[in-house]
Write a structure and sequence with these properties.
The protein is of the alpha/beta class. The protein is about 35% helix and about 25% strand. The strands form two sheets. Strands 3, 4, 5, 6, 11, 12, 13, 14 and 15 form a nine-stranded mixed β-sheet that branches. Strands 1, 2, 7, 8, 9, 10, 16 and 17 form an eight-stranded mixed β-sheet that branches. The structure holds flavin-adenine dinucleotide.
Length: about 425
């Protein structure tokens, strides 16, 4: 099997990756109980949980493990589902929403458990703060604090005034909501740790092995340019990078690009002023801004999207423009890195899980919530493959409407919709 290097994108995460893994390219044919397509959190977690149940597993990754969004994201690992519980109750009813909450809580617990069990060093820390610049959003935080405490026994704290300034390190927000059940981490080191764990469990990982297609026979034959895997079960874990591989699913998701910058390391006092409790923070905008400190004291600030195949030519200034209104004191701070990645959103911002004939499981469209839900997806897929699909089906029952216009025409509608929301972010109250 030939080995070949291809690079992770240039980013703060790549510069601080704590291991370098190198897996061969698939050459020739092989058999496995399960073939996982995609080497991000969803694919790696599927591979780990399947291998632990005794299945032989091959994982095929087009580039490098952790090359996709899993190696580039903000590292926020937030409790619950992507949509708030009050909205979920409206969408699927109270009982089903409670099942979704339980899974959302378990998703963060699963991340923590994998990190602990496999000794993954990825700067794991606790605590998440949401902040609102508009009074209407702050009023919703206040109501949501009550709703979660009385309905779910979940402890979040509403803040404003000096309490909020002390926690957020800025006076640009009028309300906040803090809780310490969420976590944050170094996303690429988490992905690489999962890959090392899968490798240790006997998963055969192939990099630079793009799947070109698979047939609908049993066992399924999964083809790359260099070889073919015959497997009874297939897991599709490509999220925003799915492309045309599976047209039966592609129309349910919309790939979009999001961007992050890393400042130079801040002096200890500046770190304390910017993020006194070392939390992950995000705002209430539709095109969300999110930030946290890195282990070496940089501000990692994410925000801004585009919907084309190209990233902005100057990502650093594209994102810096969003950071400075919140932290004007960083105007003279150097920006050392800027990078982007592609994620997948769905119409209702809840992921789509499902199963296609003959035995192809998929989980994607995490809509910016995939650190934990992608990890959970792997666990639920392994359960379903093993014959217990109740919990997978809770996720699979979520409505997942296709984008109007399908894969060809979804772009104009999305761009118009996003522009509308961007204007509301700017001018609405
Ligand atoms: C800039 C940015 C910031 C984000 N911030 C957060 C955050 O703070 N918190 C959060 O929870 N989520 C965040 N997300 C989203 C999160 O990163 C994703 O939801 C998550 O990583 C999805 O994991 P995945 O394994 O499903 O997909 P990915 O990590 O994207 O992996 C998919 C893999 O499939 C491979 N692939 C695709 N096609 C093929 C093929 N034909 N053959 C073989 N392999 C293939 C790709 O090469 C890729 O490596 C962010 C995303 C971005 C881009």
């Amino acid at each position: 099997m030939a080995r070949q290097q291809s690079a992770h994108p240039d980013s703060y995460y790549t510069a601080t990756a704590n291991r370098s893994l190198d897996f061969p390219r698939l050459q020739g044919d092989a058999q496995a109980d399960a073939c996982v397509i995609g080497g991000g959190y969803t694919g790696l977690s599927s591979a780990i949980h399947l291998a632990e149940r005794g299945y032989s597993v091959v994982l095929l990754e087009a580039e490098r493990v952790g090359w996709g969004a899993s190696g580039r994201n903000g590292g926020h690992c937030s409790i619950g589902q992507r949509q708030p519980q009050d909205e979920l109750e409206g969408l699927v009813g109270r009982e089903e929403a409670r099942r979704l909450w339980a899974l959302g809580v378990e998703s963060v617990a699963t991340v923590r458990e994998l990190i602990e069990r496999f000794g993954i060093e990825c700067d794991l820390k606790d605590g998440c703060l949401q902040v609102a610049a508009k009074r209407s959003d702050a009023a919703w935080y206040r109501r949501y604090e009550d709703f979660m405490r009385s309905g779910y026994g979940f402890d979040m704290r509403y803040l404003e005034g000096d309490d909020l300034v002390h926690l957020a390190g800025t006076d640009k927000f009028v309300g906040g909501l803090v809780e310490y059940a969420s976590a944050h981490l170094h996303p690429l080191n988490y992905a690489l740790g999962l890959a090392a764990a899968a490798d240790g469990l006997g998963v055969r990982i192939f990099e630079q092995s793009r799947v070109e297609g698979y047939d609908r026979s049993r066992p399924t034959r999964v083809r790359t340019a260099g070889g073919c895997i015959s497997a009874d079960h297939v897991v599709l874990a490509c999220n925003g990078y799915l492309g045309k591989l599976e047209p039966r699913v592609a129309g349910k998701i919309m790939p979009l690009n999001n961007f992050i910058i890393a400042t130079e390391p801040l002096a200890p006092e500046a770190q304390r002023q910017t993020n006194p409790r070392d939390l992950c923070v995000y705002d209430a905008k539709f095109v969300v801004n999110y930030w946290k400190l890195s282990a070496d004291g940089r501000l990692l600030f994410g925000g801004g999207e585009n919907y084309t195949r190209r990233f902005p030519s100057d990502i650093r200034s594209f994102v810096r423009k969003r950071m400075l209104p919140i932290y004007p004191q960083l105007a003279d701070t150097r920006i050392d890195y800027g990078w982007g990645g592609t994620l997948a959103v769905t119409m209702n911002r809840m992921p789509c899980f499902g199963r296609l004939e003959p035995d192809v499981y998929y989980a994607l469209g995490f809509s910016g919530h995939g650190v934990q839900i992608g990890t959970l997806a792997g666990k639920l897929i392994a359960e379903a493959v093993a014959g217990t699909a109740e919990r997978f089906d809770v996720m699979a029952r979520l409505p997942s409407p296709a984008f109007p216009g399908g894969t060809l025409l979804r772009w104009p509608g999305l761009v118009l919709g996003m522009l509308y929301h961007a204007l509301r972010d700017r001018f609405g109250d």
